[in-house]
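Thread: "does anyone have the structure for this chain?"

Original post by V.I.:
We have the sequence but no experimental structure in hand. Need at least a predicted one for the grant figures.
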Amino acid sequence: MLILGLTGGISTGKSTVSSYLSEKYKIPIIDADKIARDVVKPNTPAYNAIVEHFSPRIPELISKEDRSLNGAALGAYVFNDKEELKKLNSITHPAVRKQILHKIFNYYIQKQPVIILDIPLLFESGMDWLYSRVLTVTCEPDTQLSRLLKRNPELTTTQAENRIKSQMLLPLKTALSDYVIENNGSVEELKQKIDEFVTLNLPTVRYNRRNNVSYLVHNLWNYLQVIFPPFAVIGGLWAFLRKLRLRLIYKLTNY
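Reply from O.Q.:
Generated one for you, tokens below.
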């Protein structure tokens, strides 16, 4: 099973790529953002830990209506304080990882040839060891800022810039990635690039009759990993060693 990590900066178009891959190609998507929302629902361990730490600092943290977390207030606070952002991630990431591993196992026993891990903070969260390859969606800085302000009109330019700066720089993500899709144009142009990416890089050996979709096998090595498990083990070991090297590069950047 090929596990493709999908990441990118805020407002680069990663969600559009994820949705298109799911809708057109019927590839299972594990959405880390959705899981992250689920693990902080009221009375979950992560929710209780967040409330304990952040409620003294954020008076409006808890919604009076349903006791859910006020994501806007929490985000406004942590995106202006790197240490507090690290604290929040240290609470949520373990719970998210547990759910992701559970879903990966389920797809494995279903013999899915390809799954996608949609993880915005893939490198930052230390979850890069989960994937076989990584695809990063990127765009020009000015485009990223304008998209974020359009999507979240309540943000000031400074607040939007702080949210972008709270994530790993896009050039570094690109350098650590196997594949890159640049999204500076229209949605149709983006879809064309996704189609080209699928044709060249996503393998399978069986025709998906139920969804009437088939993937093209681009190279022999990908093909062998799908049909012959020992080759997948070798591929996994190679990927692990490669990730150790990339992790060292990441640490040396002192991000």
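V.I.: this helps a lot. Residues 212-254 form one domain.
O.Q.: and The beta strands are 2-8, 29-31, 114-118, 133-138, 179-182.
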